[in-house]
Protein 1
Amino acid sequence: MLTISQELVDKMIAHARADHPDEACGVIAGPEGSDTPVRFVPMENAERSPTFYRFDSMEQLRVWREMDDRDEEPVVIYHSHTSTEAYPSRTDISYASEPNAHYVLVSTREELGEKAEVRSYRIVEGVVTEEEVVIVPV
Amino acid sequence: MAIEVRIPTILRTYTDGAKAVDAQGSTLEELIGDLESRHPGLQARLVDQGALRRFVNVYLNDEDVRFLGGLETPVADGDTVTVLPAVAGGSR
């Protein structure tokens, strides 16, 4: 189960909409071991692509060091799908490498109109498990 | 003196949970070979068919080694090597 504030969900959706039709990506850091996402860190999609995303390696180094210094970890790793549903693709699964992270997908595909779809998964050793998202009102 | 290698969460099963380990060598390739001698299995997670795996980022101090010289990048005592899983994916 992922417990996350409405404010952070809104920020992910806003980022996904801003970068649409390219995929948007980022992390939400939280205190190590807390399983609580707190600090929103939008990342650049180095691929600038509607079908692929990759964190810029230098930006990632900077952000991961910052988390290390603050005793944080990437609680949420999010990205958007801009024309498909919010479900991990084969590429998403093959790259997933933070066993403690919640992989959040935001879909901004056209059929949804004003609504965005936000779903969360654990991806461990190639196995995807969808989990409940509990949104805490601000 | 040695070279400090920072290990990401997903690879700490090879280092008994250690966040950082020391290793030696004059190139990144030698360094990874030295790591393998004390942490068997680690090399295969970093290197495939003589090149760095695309699923990992390896940094020498503040630089991505892909922009330096890959596995042939020279390393020296006092350097820090950081390994991070690449974060990527997409709808296809």
Note: The two ends of chain A are 19 Å apart (CA to CA).
Protein 2
Amino acid sequence: MSEMSAMNRKLIQTLAESISKHVEHFNKTEVECLIREFNVLMGEPATPGRAVTGLDRGKFRSILHNIFGMTDDMIMDGVFRSFDKDNDSFVSMKEWIEGLSVFLRGTLDEKIKYCFHVYDLNGDNYISREEMFHMLKNSLIRQPTEEDPDEGIKDLVEITLKKMDHDHDGRLSFADFEMAVREENLLLEAFGTCLPDTMSIEIFEQHVFQEQLEP
Amino acid sequence: MGVSLTKAALWTSSGKLEFTPMNESLLKEILSFVEQFSSQHPQEAEHVFEEPLQWSTTLVASDFKTDYDISDSDVQSHEKDSEGHPLLRLSPPTVYVRSFSQLSKLVHLADDKKLEEVRACLEENRDPVVKILGPCFANVLEREDTDTDVLGLADKDQAKDSEVKVKLFHLLQTTDKLFLSKLLEEISEQVRLDPTTVKNDMELLKQLCSGGEKRVLKSVRYTSDYEFSNGCRAPLWRQVHGEICYLVIEPCDTDNLYITCSTAGVFLNGGIKQEGEESGYERTSDMYEDLLTLLKSQSPYFAKNINKQDFGVQELPSTQRIQHVESVDMEEQGQPQRSYEQQEKNVHDKARQQHTLNKAGGEKKYEPCPRWKNLGLMSPCGYVIIPCKIKAEEKKSSKSSGEERSVKIALLSVLFLFSKTPAGALPVELSSESSSESEEEEEQSERRPESNTDLPSEYWQIQKLVKYLKGGDQTATVLTLCAMMDFNLMQETCQLAIRDVGGLEVLINLLDTDEVKCKIGSLKILRKISHNVQIRRTIVDMGGLQSIVKILDSPVKDLKALAAETIANVARFRRARRTVRQYGGIKKLVKLLDCEKDVEVARCGALALWSCSKSTKNKEAIRKAGGIPLLGRLLKSPHENMLIPVVGTLQECASEESYRIAIQTEGMVNDLVKNLSSDNDELQMHCASAIFKCAEDKQTRDLVRKYKGLQPLVSLLAKANNKQLLAAATGAIWKCSISIENVAKFQEHKALETLVGLLTDQPEEVLVNVVGALGEFAQIPDSKATIRKCGGIKPLVNLLTGTNQALLVNVTKAVGACATDKENMAIIDQLDGVRLVWSLLKNPSADVQSSSAWALCPCIENAKDAGEMVRSLVGGLELIVNLLKSTNNEVLASICAAIAKIAKDKENLAVLTDHGVVPLLAKLTNTTDDRLRRHLAEAIGHCCIWGSNRASFGEAGAVAPLVRYLKSKDSTVHQSTAMALYQLSKDPHNCITMHEKGVVKPLIHIMGSNDEILQEAAAGCVRNIRLLALANRKARLFY
């Protein structure tokens, strides 16, 4: 067993070294820690020997929910999509670390790209009226007294479009989104919280980077 | 008259009319009715009463004139009834009257006592109508609703005067109604509850009756369906008591409640079940503020369930709200009582603001908004209920059914109307709430008159956004806040719109949430709209400042900076600054200054401190929190936008000595000087202003010179268009020029020439400083000539006619300084400057008086024909002598100095003596003020020259105190005292006094002084004493 873990450690170290060369914001030790955390989150493979591709949607969502306090299904799916770059419905170790790099420590530019990707539900590189409506539909208390209970949300979508749709094509391109966010940073998470707050980042990093180093 | 008398008037238990305003006006109405009766209704006036009205009168026989038979003290009228009985009979003290014509005659006779007569008559004839018309008519009259029966009665009464009787009856009835409605008008001006309120309340309660099992009440109804035009349902004679209507309410758990709603409040009555009941109007319970309070206390079931109703729900949909406004307005138009239409509107306006307060949310802790609490607009039971906090998650869960919600909305609207007392309702309340009340009025008056019709489109857009803010989760809230930022928030329309639709409450509530982005968005809006005075006040009134202060502790830098920036705007008035301090804001702000890494946070902290530093206590608090060294460190910043608030704060605080010392000792003078050369006017101004305040201290002045600050100060004089900057720069130059070394330096840069150029066409704040500087410059002989050559004398003399006291003090000082130069003096004299200075002695300010008197000294000394000049000023010498009665030592000293100069002219000294200068001077000799002693002794010395003044001083007891002056430590006192003693010693009696007081020893000591004048005066005095002694001895030898 100890031989096994020694081998494992060696393996992880090499892996960390190679990944850390491609990933921003994390040093080699931190990558190592993240790999370990990934393995913990993966749990023991059900059938030993069989290679597991990564975290599936369910597992990933429960991580988002339990560790980062996210609740909105649509947004969590969006985050999963953002992490799962190769679209294989699994977040691999590499995707995990690359994703977290932005998720936890991303620059404004990286975050703009990330958020846009989360909000672009159908992946057509535009955030359409309909997508906005979907994401915002639960954000207002309905007014049953009004003829159309969704009127408020529709209006909110229009207000948002007016503010962000610089080229007036009725949808948000990445350029629109980027420009609006640069103008007003509060618009980064315009259609729902998809980034962790400072508190949960702190807790997560402490848990992963410090507690793991003290065996 | 019957109803108004029996029911409206307030009677004491002993059957007297109480002295209430209502009774007084009732009496007056009756009096004028009686007075005019015989002229307006001659036929009815002849009608003979069934029974005479009789009362004890104050009238006596002599008061009656013709038309009366007077025998002894008894009086009978000529006018008799058909049976030959007189219609008026007086057998003192009782008078019997049997017709209205006699009544009105009597009232005329009573003249100024007529009111008392009417009062006595009514008090002793509690049922006048019965006596006038007989009991059957009176009964009908009391029942007010019956016209028909009268004719029947008339038939029964077969007497020929029945027709007259009926007419009289109608007359009395209409008069009665007239009285009541007039009284009603008066009463309605004092209402607290009003019909509209009650009506709204009823609407609410009716809705509470529906809802099957869940209903809170079983039924609610009025006792009467008829509603008067003023909205009341109570009979007129009960309305006089302020009663509005009667209700029968059937609660779920107790017996029917019979309730009276009156303007004073609501209470249970004796059981009025339907319209027109005679009895049951009495109060059988405590008085309650409003219906709901009463119901809560009477029905536990109601109390329990009404509290379960979630008041915190749901804003009013905009359309509904507008309809509501209009409906109330329409009602008002229909009301005859204009007087409180206005109040109603105000109340409603507030109520509307209140609705919008109600954020969706299930938060259980409801707090009354402190603002309304302060205003006394709340009922004590706490009906104005506002959820203060919202949590995004809870909003979702609080979706309730539409019907339930609309009930709640109606409930709220009623509650708000209900719990309000129209402003100025009762004098008692007013006085207890006076302070906050007056503030409210101030804010009320700030409101623009507005009506729904001409509101700008922004208003509606903002109203919609505020609605989304209230009903949105974090995402929607942030989006809405961003949309709101796109409005021109510096524009008053938008600022007030946000407040008026209840947005301010929401923004403030957001500050107490945990959502960083919401807080940032809210503060980004608040920091803009808080540029508006009214918004600032409202933020403080709503307790928003506390929340903002709390945010200063946040770990998020953006939040800290935004909060500080908002505080900088809000803390522009005293109450706000105090609030910041009381909630520990000063310490937190000082802590922000320590954020070296984040310039923006420190800058905003400095901005906020700058605003706060306008209160003295805050200056102290900043110092205690260790702010001074931090400010000193930031003073080295290269950023202009950092330096401005930092220097601004420093110059504001430099009014305190502790700061001035710190600025000097902690090396800040260097930085201030350095920034004088900045290219930002504002920064230059604050630096100059700080130097202005600090340079009273010599060391600071020297430091300014050392760091080469004088030249930049002079260059600032070129920016003559920026008056604030000019005032600060000239101020700094003035204070710096107190050091002669600085004057020399200034002269190198031709400061004086520039300053003289600033003597005309400048605001007073600049002039004060320019003239002050000239006064200091003119201490140097060269400067005096320069001022003259630059043409400075004339504008200076012109300024003597001003009224600004600070300016006058400086001008007289400068003129005085210039007058020490003979050529200058010639010009001053030519411009009649001495007369102008002299007349300033009449100025009420002691500073101006003394400064003028000091200025007179060199004028008199250097004028060509001073004696003649002084004599030409009519009344001038008397004025001077009279100022010796001043209580201000500086004034006294200056006047003594002037007298010393004037007395050099014998003729003028004679006039001074005539005006009694000697005893006045003698009276002052007991002073211990060395400055005064010196000039007093000088004046005494000079005044000795005339006539018997030497002896007079001796007789007035001036010699002995003068001897004591020799013990003073001030050598200038010694000099003038020695001179005075020398003069006084020419009178033998004075020599004896001096000798007795031991003057010789100190004088001999003084003779050893290096000062020749002093030596001579002392020696002269001793010589006189010796001569007297010798003469004495000789005389003794001789005889």
Note: The CA atoms of residues 681 and 722 of chain B lie 8 Å apart.
